[in-house]
From TrEMBL:
The keyword Nucleotide-binding does not apply. GO terms for biological process: cell differentiation; cilium assembly; intraciliary transport; spermatogenesis. One of its GO terms (cellular component) is ciliary basal body. GO terms for molecular function: tubulin binding. Residues 368-387 are annotated as: Disordered. It comes from the Eukaryota. Belongs to the IFT81 family. Gene3D superfamilies: Intraflagellar transport protein 81, N-terminal domain. The gene is Ift81. This is Intraflagellar transport protein 81 homolog. The keyword Phosphoprotein applies. Keywords: Acetylation, Cell projection, Cilium, Cilium biogenesis/degradation, Coiled coil, Cytoplasm, Cytoskeleton, Differentiation, Phosphoprotein, Spermatogenesis.
């Protein structure tokens, strides 16, 4: 412990802290001073905490702020402080056994922690709830945020690689000199070749022909590239035409198959589903949420529990659940069918309601997923129409695509875990289904026995079959009559619509051909204008940049001159004030009045020195008394600490006993209530 404190004092006396502590002064610091010192060290690591004054901040806010930063820095409390609540309490009260290890850990690795705190400002991801991500703008902003985070990671890696690459100025200078030598050699070689060519007849004409050949080759390459691009555009246009034809066929099929009865049936299903959500599902979920919030508030109000207490409670809960399941199975096996008829109906009703809720949730999720996929499809189709074909991903776009695939992979793993949980639940439901089937068979046998006694065996079965067959027959007759009439009307309407569409589309197709030719001409003209615009914009941009640099330099000079002027004025005022004070001091010191002399600074400092000397004598006497009584006082403190530990142990034993009795009573009451149900 002494080595730890000595290391802390040495680090605090160095740059950038310069506290001038020794072991005695550091050990005599109060709780507020220790917290302020810890805040200064954290402010050196993260400048955001350097402007905070502990005395002006609430203790809970201080603890929350420091714990969040220590969590980002991945600090783990030592083995003697296993309970996080005790560590938090010690951090609030400024306890030395809590703060000294934190200071030692921070001062050991200050540079590493500075880097980690700097990266945490940009790499700690903000968790956005899933319901907010349904909004398109929020989803786009979140996507841009993730892309910027990935770009920052790549830039930081490149920066670190450049720092550790070991490139020096000497090596760069050698490379520059080598390049200059190569440049000189190339210039000499070109001059020699020019001298050789000058001796040949018609060398200018031959050079011109070679230049034209090079230009023609470049033009040939550009034409081949344009030909390939036009082939790609033609291929994409054919694909778009095929997709449009498929969509047209699907729309024709949808129009042929649609009927007013089916549309009404869909609307009735949607109305029933929405009414179920409004009247049953949403109020039940709201009530359950309120209950959960109430219980969570009760849990928060209770004192904090450790991991060992939670594990003991979980073991007890599992044991009680297994006992309850065993008792329920025994009861189901032992009960007579007649007596358990109402309970069976209740269970069936509860199972049906749960299935109804599950299907409603699945339907709601499917509708949300369908709407989101439709929005994505519309966006993709609009993008495809704008781009007129897909492009090969390159560079950063390919990295973003890989990141998306990784996120989808994690999502797939989560869904696979959910499927495993659903399969486990499916096994439990199969078991309950088997039990219900056994009970149903028992009830059917009992019903058959009663019918045999009364002499009407098979009456219930035949009655149900007759009712079902009559209902099906009446429905089929009605449907046949309606479908024949509707089909004849729909065929007439569709034939008329097809004839009208053909007649209306003929002039449109002619206009479309002319517009395509105009479109090709306009695209060529647009490309030429764009090249002219780019060249003009580049010239204007260069002029603007030079003017901006000049204006920036002049503004900096103006700001510098203004700051010098203000600095000189401030120095002049300070010197005038100091000169005025010196004149007043000299006047008071020379005056014969003793009252005026007492007001001088010299006399005030003399009185203060005398008071401090007297105070030093008193403190030395007090130090002597403290040294004499140090041994007995330390023994008394040790005895009091032992007594305090003994009373704390008794209090914990008493609380554990009360908790165990209370938990046993709650479990017994819950078991009685379930047995009554």
């Amino acid at each position: 412990m002494s080595d730890q404190i000595q290391f802390i004092v040495e680090k605090l006396n160095q740059e950038p802290f310069r506290k001038n502590y020794n072991l005695i002064t550091f050990d005599s610091l109060e709780a507020v001073q220790l917290l302020q010192l810890l805040n200064d060290v954290l402010g050196e690591i993260d400048p955001k905490h350097a402007v905070v004054d502990i005395r002006e901040e609430l203790p809970e806010q201080t603890a929350k702020r420091m714990l969040s930063l220590l969590g980002i820095l991945k600090y783990k409390p030592p083995g003697s402080i296993s309970d996080l609540s005790a560590f938090r309490q010690g951090l609030v009260t400024g306890s030395k056994p809590v703060i000294h290890p934190v200071l030692h850990w921070l001062l050991q690795r200050t540079n590493e922690l500075k880097k980690r705190a700097y990266l945490a400002r940009f790499l700690v991801k903000l968790e956005v709830p899933a319901e907010f991500l349904q909004d398109d703008t929020v989803a786009d902003i979140n996507k841009q945020y993730e892309e910027l985070m990935e770009a920052f990671k790549n830039l930081h890696k490149e920066c670190e690689q450049l720092k550790t690459s070991g490139l020096s100025t000497a090596e760069i200078r050698r490379d520059i000199s080598a390049m200059e030598e190569e440049k000189d050699q190339l210039i000499k070689r070109v001059e020699r070749l020019k001298k050789r060519v000058e001796t040949v007849q018609n060398h200018q004409r031959m050079l011109e022909i070679a230049r034209q050949l090079r230009l023609e080759k470049e033009r040939e390459e550009s034409l081949a590239q344009q030909k390939q691009e036009q082939k790609n555009q033609l291929f994409h246009a054919e694909q778009r035409l095929q997709r449009a034809q498929l969509q047209l066929k699907e729309m024709h099929h949808a129009v042929v198959d649609s009927k007013p009865e089916s549309l009404m049936k869909k609307l009735e299903e949607e109305i029933n589903f929405n009414s179920y959500l409004v009247t049953e599902k949403i109020p039940r979920e709201l009530e359950s949420k309120k209950n959960s919030v109430y219980f969570l508030q009760k849990v928060v109000a209770e004192p904090a529990m450790g991991q060992s207490d939670l594990s003991v409670l979980e073991i007890k809960i599992n044991e009680v659940n297994t006992q309850m399941n065993q008792l329920i199975e025994k009861r189901m096996m032992k009960y007579e069918p007649i007596d358990s008829k109402f309970s069976m109906y209740r269970q069936q009703a509860s199972i049906i309601s749960r299935k109804k809720e599950a299907k409603a949730e699945e339907l709601q999720a499917a509708k949300e997923e369908m709407s989101s996929t439709e929005r994505q499809m519309q966006q993709k189709t609009s993008q495809a129409q704008e781009l007129e074909g897909s492009e090969v991903l390159k560079g950063d776009e390919f990295k973003l695509y890989v990141n998306k695939l990784r996120s989808k992979n994690t999502f797939y793993k989560k869904k696979r875990l959910e499927i495993a949980e659903i399969t486990a639940e499916y096994g439990i439901l199969q078991r309950t289904e088997e039990l219900l089937k056994q009970r149903h068979e028992a009830i059917q046998q009992q019903l058959q026995a009663i019918e045999d006694k009364k002499g009407i065996s098979g009456y219930s079965y035949t009655q149900e079959e007759l009712e079902r067959v009559s209902a099906v027959k009446s429905e089929m007759d009605e449907m046949k009559g309606r479908t024949l009439d509707n089909m004849s009307e729909m065929v007439k309407k569709l034939n008329a619509m097809v004839a009208e569409k053909k007649a209306s589309l003929a002039p449109v197709i002619k206009e479309l051909r002319q517009l395509r030719q105009q479109y090709q001409e306009l695209t060529q003209e647009c490309d030429e204008k764009k090249i002219q615009y780019d060249s003009c914009a580049a010239g204007l941009e260069s002029n603007r940049s030079t003017l901006e640099q000049e204006v920036k330099g002049l503004l900096e000079e103006c700001i510098q001159e203004e700051s010098n002027y203000r600095y000189i004025n401030c120095m002049k005022r300070n010197l005038e004030i100091q000169l005025q004070r010196a004149k007043e001091e000299m006047k008071a010191y020379v005056s014969p009045d003793p009252q005026e002399r007492r007001k001088t600074i010299r006399e005030q400092y003399a009185r203060m020195i005398l008071e401090q000397e007297n105070l030093g004598k008193k403190l030395r006497e007090k130090q002597k008394v403290v040294r004499e009584s140090h041994g007995p006082n330390m023994k008394q403190i040790k005895m009091w600490q032992d007594f305090e530990q003994l009373m704390e142990c008794k209090r914990e034993c008493f609380l554990k006993q009360q908790n165990q009795t209370a938990i046993g009573q709650v479990i017994q009451e819950g078991g009685k209530d379930r047995l009554v149900l």
